[in-house]
Amino acid sequence: MTNVETASHHTARGMATRARIVAAAADLMFAAGVAATSLDQVLAASGTSKSQLYHYFAGKDDLVLAVIRRQTERVLAAQEPHLRQLDSIAGLLRWREGVIDLQRLHDCVGGCPIGSLAAELSASPVPRALLAESFQRWGSYLIAGFTAMAGRGELAPGTDPADLAVAVLSAVQGGALLTKTTRSTRPLELALDMAIEHVRRQMR
Amino acid sequence: MTNVETASHHTARGMATRARIVAAAADLMFAAGVAATSLDQVLAASGTSKSQLYHYFAGKDDLVLAVIRRQTERVLAAQEPHLRQLDSIAGLLRWREGVIDLQRLHDCVGGCPIGSLAAELSASPVPRALLAESFQRWGSYLIAGFTAMAGRGELAPGTDPADLAVAVLSAVQGGALLTKTTRSTRPLELALDMAIEHVRRQMR
DNA sequence: GCAAGAGTGGACCGTCAAGTCCAGTTCGCC
DNA sequence: GGCGAACTGGACTTGACGGTCCACTCTTGC
Hints:
Strand content of chain A: under 5%
CATH superfamily of the largest domain in chain A: Tetracycline Repressor, domain 2
Oligomer: homodimer
CATH architecture of the largest domain in chain A: Orthogonal Bundle
Largest interface: A-B, 47 and 47 residues
Number of strands of chain A: 0
Number of helices of chain A: 9
Shape of chain A: elongated
Structural class of chain A: mainly alpha
CATH topology of the largest domain in chain A: Tetracycline Repressor, domain 2
């Protein structure tokens, strides 16, 4: 009954309300963290009431799962223009700019929405599994690009696109964490430079 | 009056009590996060009472600062055998093993103690500043190693040891985050491999 | 047009968190 | 040994939080 993305029993108005709740929760949790965000804050920010929240979600934990899904979609959507062209150094460099611009947009506050959720929630099994899946989805775009490069014979034989993707993602996450701690885009820039150099090094 | 590491007004017994509180808090917060750890849990785990905690700390925020300091010391101490020999690829590889073993020791739960605190606390100015300092201290060991390499002419001219250190630290943090999310040491291994390759690339 | 059920508002409750307070004990020092 | 300060125990206050409940209003399908 809860946690339904598609309109099974829900009307258009209901879905809109649900979406408003998730959007408000995602913003607040991005800014302050999951634990530091109360349901009352979410209700105030979304202009809804307790009964509505519990009409659409089983509880806070369930809402958090919806937030994870939403943030995953948003992160991927924000990179969408670049994600499908990660099959060349030029494409990776364009993606690099996009990722860094995104951090600048938020003044280096909050870091990576997915990464922040992962840091806070990966002690709990269910959110952790969902977040692992989010990373995997993100990584799949990198893997697709690297696989295309390998298919064109641009990658040294024996290079595993999946391993390469994990390394690059690690660089993004670590760079984003240091960026939000130091309030400077520099760490993210350096980490991404390293990662792209790493890819280039596998080329031949 | 609070937050005194050295024995200004405190007796040996008092300092021991204080240390027990910080130790218990650090362990609990490492396992579950800062927000998810209550003072009552800390008291129970340390065998102390409310009045003692508030005798040594101004409040939870103040206790958290002490926890940051303690975890920083612990992380650096755990790497101590390797930290002073980061001036060669061989030294970096030994350090790599140490870092990975540490994650294995905790079954990939919790990630990097400093990184986890940074992810949760870098929205608040005071903890954030302290954590930035912790990263800088950590990085200073890397910088020392790279500077020694540069002094021996092993690094390509124009290579900035500080930039190199930030990139390597980013890899560790990102690798640790993915490691705790996927419950596998693989991401950390791949990230560290990439980072060390990155250093090697700046050589000669 | 009229049920049935989706959607809504907000009062209410139990719990547990941080933080306060005070009375009592131990310690360090003269 | 005795005085003051450090130290300790735990009852207590206050408030916020997640969660429940019920009365009420819209929407929709027939």
